[in-house]
Structure formats: structure tokens, C-alpha cells
Design brief:
The chain is mainly β. The protein has strands at 2-3, 9-11, 13-14, 47-52, 55-60, 86-87, 91-92. Helices cover 0% and strands 24% of the residues. A hairpin with a 5-residue loop joins strand 1 and strand 2.
């Protein structure tokens, strides 16, 4: 996740495509790239924003107790201009 502390917007980003050497992931077009990556475990952690113990917190690791932002879909896709990374849309910084 990248966040500008002076901004009210955020986007979720991961370079997981850099580990997809055995999947024919084209890091320029996004063809063949997928999240979670193919292979054993077929798992990739996503961010959740939740209220825990009365406080608003960010959790990482597939927690389902709050706003999951679409789970793995929060990372968007690989494509021209993303430099090989999965990049989700810029969205308003949410409050719990």
C-alpha cells in the first residue's frame, strides 16, 4: 500500500509479478499475470481496515473482519505504465 501522509487518497501496489517467472507473466502488458500467483499455496495477502479494540487499524494478511477493498482485487492489474507492478486505483483514504 502506498499512502501520501499529506493526502486523503491511497492505492494498493505490489510487485508480486516479479516472482512469476514460471507463469509467462508479461510485465509490460499484464498478459499472463495473476494475483494470487500460480503455484503452491495460491495465496497472496491483502490489506483490511477494521476496528479492533475500539481503534481503527490496518491489517495485512487476509483478515475478513472489516473493509477488504475487494481482497486481492485491491491491487488492480499489471499494464503499460505500471513498471511491472500490480497497481490498484487511487481511491479516497477511508475512515473506519
Amino acid at each position: 500500500m502506498r499512502r501520501n501522509l499529506w493526502s486523503r487518497r491511497l492505492s494498493f501496489v505490489t510487485d508480486a509479478s516479479a516472482t512469476e517467472f514460471n507463469t509467462n507473466c508479461n510485465t509490460k502488458t499484464g498478459t499472463g499475470c495473476q494475483l494470487p500467483p500460480k503455484g503452491p499455496g495460491h495465496f497472496y495477502p491483502f490489506w483490511t481496515q477494521a476496528v479492533v479494540g475500539g481503534s481503527c487499524v490496518w491489517e495485512f494478511g487476509n483478515m475478513h473482519n472489516g473493509n477488504t477493498f475487494g481482497q486481492d482485487a485491491q491491487y488492480g492489474s499489471v499494464g503499460p505504465g505500471t513498471i511491472g507492478a500490480f497497481v490498484g486505483p487511487v481511491r479516497p483514504n477511508p475512515n473506519c
